[in-house]
Every structure is written in C-alpha cells, then in structure tokens.
Amino acid sequence: MKILSIDTSGSSLNVGLLDSSTGLFFAHEHTTDEARTHSMKILPAIQALMTKAGWSFDQLERIALTAGPGSFTGLRIGAAVAKMIAGQTSAELVPVSTLEMIALSARSSAATSYLPMINARNHNVFAAICRPGKPLDDEGHWPFADFLSKAPKNSIFVFEQGTGDDFKAEIQTAGLKFIEQPSEKLIDAKLLAQQGLSAARADADSFAPRYLRKTAAEMAWLKKHPDAGDGDYAKYVSEV
Fold first, then answer.
1. Are the C-beta atoms of 126 and 169 separated by less than 8 Å?
2. Neighbours of 34 (CB within 10 A)
C-alpha cells in the first residue's frame, strides 16, 4: 500500500511516503525548515517526495494525518491539504491522534506508559496516557495538576523541546521522568504512515481536526450568542 503521511500539528512539518509492500520510505528533510511555515512548505515538500519516489498522486492509497490536538492553524493546514488530495484521488483519509503519535515516536520500551503532552497555555495541557498494547486513555484538555494526578507510576512524559519548562519541577516532584523531543523528531512520519495501515478511515468531506477545546474566536462568538445550539458556530463559519 502506498501511503502519504502528513503532520502539521506542531512547530515542524513532517511528511513522508511509505510503500508498505517494499518497505521503501521517503521523508521530508528539515535542513531548511523554519518553524510554523507549513502553509508555504507543505505542497512543495509533498511534490518533492512524490518526484523522488517516482509516484503519481493517483497511486496514493491512503493519507495518514495527525488529526489533533495541536496548533489550530497547523491542524487546519494539514487537514485542508489531506482533504484536497483525497478529494482528487481515490486515496482514503486516515486520521491518527497527535498525542498517540508523540508517544509512539518516543517509545523505547514496550513495558512503559508514556504521557504525550502539548502545552495549551495557562498551565493547561493537551495530554493522554499511552499504555502498552491498549487504546489511548484520558485524552483531553487538562489543567496540568489534574492530569498529573492520573499519571501511572513509572510513566514518562513526552513533549516538544522548549515547551515543557513550566511543568518539569512538578513532574520531578511526583517522581516521574520526562523526554524533551526536538521539534523535527516529535512526530515520526514513518511511524505515522505505518499507523495509517491499520487506523480507521474517515470521510474526507466531513472530516475536521480534533482540537479538544474551542478556539478563542469560537468562545467569543458563543459568549455573544448564549442561546446558540450545538453546531451553530460551525454553520456561522461556513456561511462567512
């Protein structure tokens, strides 16, 4: 199966191509990347990989995409590109949790629980518990103290380098460890493609990223429209 993997959830752009029948893998190089320039880099990066692999877009069978949580803008960029390619080809769109991929990309021991974490500001985090051989647990938007209280013994926090300084002392006081991953290694594009082999596909037309919290714009709109029902904000954005 020929799979395109796309991650735009964090600071670095991660894209790759995997041919599961041969094991061949082609990855985007980060040598000239600047943080959060995904909108400019993603399409040229994908085209360069397709040329390198000698594939046409019609040969793609799946698109594995980090579906969130993560940067609101970044997630939208990745989703828009994945939906566009899926809509123009017969490729299936396969969303995978960003937090699960952070954990899997860092995993060095199958016997250890990993706690992938994204700084959500104001001492809140997007986080989850990734236990060996089990589905992702407690994925959500948490006050850090609340999530820390759920951490299994001997588990390891994983977060992007430079984003976890506010939490390190509390992690260590709780007797736990952490891993700081460079941004370009936070999500392994090859592992993302491999997850795409078994993950459930989504309808490309209706797919939307999993933000796990409302945007500032949505919260401001809802404050002005206290009687709004579920889905009303999405209808408003669509109309605009």
1. no
2. 11
